[in-house]
Specification:
With 459 residues, this protein is an alpha+beta fold. It has helices at 21-24, 29-43, 52-62, 70-89, 133-136, 138-145, 150-153, 169-182, 196-213, 222-226, 244-247, 269-275, 316-323, 329-333, 395-402, 416-422; strands at residues 17-18, 229-233, 239-242, 256-257, 287-292, 305-310, 348-356, 364-370, 386-391, 409-414, 429-438, 450-458. It contains 16 helices and twelve strands. Strand 2 (229-233) and strand 3 (239-242) form a beta hairpin. The structure holds CU-O-CU linkage (C2O). CU-O-CU linkage binds next to helix 8.
Length: 459
């Protein structure tokens, strides 16, 4: 049965458009309105659930990470805060700005003035620091938007709100990176005390909307749609219940975006065209193609960590189809595979699994390569064996403290093109290689982590 949900604020005909903060600039009325709303929320008594710190505590106590409620829960959370902002400043037209880190990887102007409510002491990123391109650039975001399956794109299926499943590339790459790049409070689960948090999540939300507009379909499973989020309050401070189903479209939620493009760098049109209209599968149909032995050695800075995924005899025809370009001919002559779709898998995914994230210092970017003959820390991300990069955000805490299912963290990356490009006909194994590098030259000490297994999955 569908739990009762609290209707969203109807659009009053007002112009509630979330806009790019860097374009608005520090003195724009929207940034000033946001600063005033934050100031008033900070001034509320701590017993008022709309108090600024009380709002941030919701995140610490309830945020889903590493599962398929990551996107809808943060959408509901951001939208409820936006409504509280409207109430605080008596402006029904107010909409949060967003931080489009693909267009400009610097913290937007207006957040560094120590006398402003938008200032947060203790950040590691300064005014001239720029988020790592491999994590947030238009190309990285296009990679994150490429998966056709929600449970790959938007993190994986779990049973409970904070349980571990897998982190998809939107969460794992730009999302996690921005948290550790900004640093300070943004790098832990009390992150929403930093007013930047809400601009960051508005952009993540915008990218989910972008994926939907390109044809990506959200889950229809009632487990996803109906799980009640009992964590938020409305603009009057009354408890509300939200669900993923109620926020799965931005239509009717009282805001829209000024644009859904990833960035405005020239040369993206082609990428967009290939990603569009892919008629996303609502249900996952992931088949295990190959799996590595356990590697219990720590992953340490500057050294490649190799996980050699091998196909079992039963799935070798699928592996050959996934590992060589162009997929097809050979697999078609092999014994009939379990499902004909998998003779020519649409996408091949790498799951880096059995992860124990860094225990203290998460200032690390993990590059993933396949089949590189002599990978070093200096191998550039332009190398044809490069699959993508991921980062951590309180990942060990999420798995060991917040989650109840006992699973370790895992990350899914789309490796279709790289596997086909670097594999060779008849291959039944792929060497999946991790290379940790630093964030903005920050010390890597303490960033050791474990990634014991890798899998290749076909969809
Ligand atoms: Cu629950 Cu970006 O945080």
């Amino acid at each position: 049965m569908q739990p009762p949900t609290t209707p969203a604020n109807p659009i009053s005909g007002a112009n509630r458009t979330r806009q790019d903060a860097a374009r608005l600039g520090a003195n724009h009325s929207i940034l000033r309105a946001y600063a005033e709303a934050v100031r008033r929320m900070k001034a509320l008594p701590s017993s008022d659930p709309r108090n600024w710190n009380a709002q941030a505590t919701i995140h610490l106590q309830a945020c889903p990470h590493g599962n398929w409620w990551f996107l809808p829960w943060h959408r509901a959370y951001t939208q409820r805060l936006e409504q509280i902002c409207r109430e605080m400043i008596g402006d029904e037209d107010f909409a949060l700005p967003y931080w489009n880190w693909s267009r400009d990887g610097r913290i937007p102007p207006g957040f560094f003035d120590a006398s402003s409510p938008l200032f947060q002491p203790g950040r590691l990123a300064g005014q001239n620091s720029t988020a790592a391109a491999e994590m947030v650039s238009a190309a990285a975001v296009e990679r994150a938007l490429a998966p056709t399956n929600f449970e790959v794109f938007g993190s994986g299926r779990a049973g409970g709100q904070r349980d571990q499943a897998s982190q998809g590339p939107l969460e794992a790459t730009p999302h996690n990176h921005i948290h550790v790049f900004v640093g300070g409070e943004m790098a832990n689960f009390i992150a929403p005390v930093d007013p930047l948090f809400w601009l960051h999540h508005a952009n993540v939300d915008r990218l989910w909307e972008t994926w939907n507009q390109r044809g990506g379909r959200n889950p229809t499973d009632s487990l996803w749609r109906d799980l009640p989020f009992r964590d938020f309050v409305d603009r009057a401070g009354n408890r509300v219940t939200d669900t993923s189903g109620a926020v799965s479209s931005t239509a009717g939620l009282g805001y829209r975006y000024d644009g859904l493009s990833v960035a405005e760098a020239p040369g993206l049109a082609g990428l967009r065209a290939t990603a569009q209209n892919f008629g996303g599968l609502a249900q996952p149909d992931l088949a295990l193609v190959a799996v590595s032995d356990l590697n219990a050695a720590p992953v340490t800075a500057g050294r490649p960590h190799s996980l050699r995924a091998r196909a079992t005899p039963a799935v070798q025809s699928m592996a050959r189809a996934a590992f060589a370009a162009p997929a097809g001919a050979e697999a078609m002559m092999a014994a009939p595979p379990p499902s004909s779709a998998l003779a020519n898998p649409e996408r091949a995914l790498i799951r880096v699994a059995q992860i124990d994230a860094p225990a203290r210092n998460e200032n690390v970017i993990v590059r993933v390569f396949v089949n590189h003959p002599n990978l070093t820390a200096a191998t550039p991300v332009s190398d044809p064996h490069y699959v993508g990069s991921f980062g951590f955000f309180q990942t060990r805490f999420a798995a060991e403290v917040c989650s109840t299912n006992g699973l370790k963290a895992s990350y899914l990356l789309d490796a279709t093109e790289v596997l086909r490009r670097t594999g060779h006909a008849g291959a039944t194994e792929a060497d999946i290689q991790l290379m940790p590098v630093d964030v903005e030259g920050r010390p890597l000490a303490g960033t050791e982590f474990y990634a014991q297994q890798a899998e290749v999955l076909a969809v």
